[in-house]
Amino acid sequence: MNPDLPLDQARGTSGGVEAPAMGAGVDADDLDHARSQEYALLASLLLAPPDADFLARLSCLQHGDATPLGRAHADLGRAAASASADAVGREYFDLFIGIGRGELLPYASYYLTGFLNERPLARLRGDMMRLGLERADGHCDPEDHLGTLCEIMSGFAGNHFVVPANDEQDFFARHIAPWAGRFFADLENAKAAKFYRAVGTIGRLFIEIESEAFAMEMRRST
């Protein structure tokens, strides 16, 4: 792995707008590209509110396919088309920052222990060090922020981070699977969520798909 490759390389590539449907008829390279783009989309939306240009690009998603994930993308496209950047910025503040704290705390430590900066963060930092990953300059959130974890998964799926066999699946199982689905379900039902309700649905469905795919790989390998 190239230790100089910053984690924020994936940020802003949010080409989830161009990701092909993840199903039959998609070869492995296209599937990994779609996965990488989906993770990058989630990372971008969790780490910062979308600006007007990003919302305009997301509005192109209004005609998704008939799968649950495709319908969720279409819902996100419609939400983007009807939202302003200022309104989504205020929503992002209420959800994730707030006065004192936001409605939701998108950190593994909080979801797994009830407190910030706990053992899950230490385990993550150990794995990142082993894999040669470092937090990007200027990024102040603890590394167990779900947006950062999605960036890392995007890098794995897109082959931006070269890791030993099975490390991608192990990283997902250790740092994302135990709590990310619950966070996205909470985001779907958050009081402040309007635009971000659709983000929650996409995230929940995508984590379910990833969990099932990794479980199938594990069964095939045993």
Automatic annotation (TrEMBL):
Region annotation (Disordered) ranges: 1-22
Gene3D superfamilies registered for this protein in UniProt: TorD-like
InterPro entries, sorted: DMSO/NO3_reduct_chaperone, TorD-like_sf, TorD/DmsD_chaperones
Keyword entries, A-Z: Chaperone
Protein name in the entry: Cytoplasmic chaperone TorD
Organism field: Chelativorans sp. (strain BNC1)
Highest classification ranks of the organism: Bacteria, Pseudomonadati, Pseudomonadota, Alphaproteobacteria, Hyphomicrobiales
